[in-house]
Design brief:
Length: 63
């Protein structure tokens, strides 16, 4: 899980890269959960929250 204070120390490019990585992971996790091969469903929730946290920090940096 990512810490918001830790995210604020990163550049916009680093945050964008991290966001892209997490979105890919979320996409892959959805398929794994759907076909039953994935058991750690808590990771799906954690990834979603990390995506939201990064988006929030990016918005705060913009405005």
């Amino acid at each position: 899980m990512l810490d918001a204070a830790e995210l604020r120390n990163k550049t916009v490019d680093e945050l964008t890269d991290e966001l892209l990585k997490l979105k890919r992971e979320a996409f892959n996790l959805r398929f794994q959960v759907a076909d039953g091969s994935f058991k750690n469903t808590a990771r799906v929730r954690e990834v979603r929250r990390d995506v939201a946290r990064i988006k929030t920090v990016l918005r705060q940096m913009q405005g």
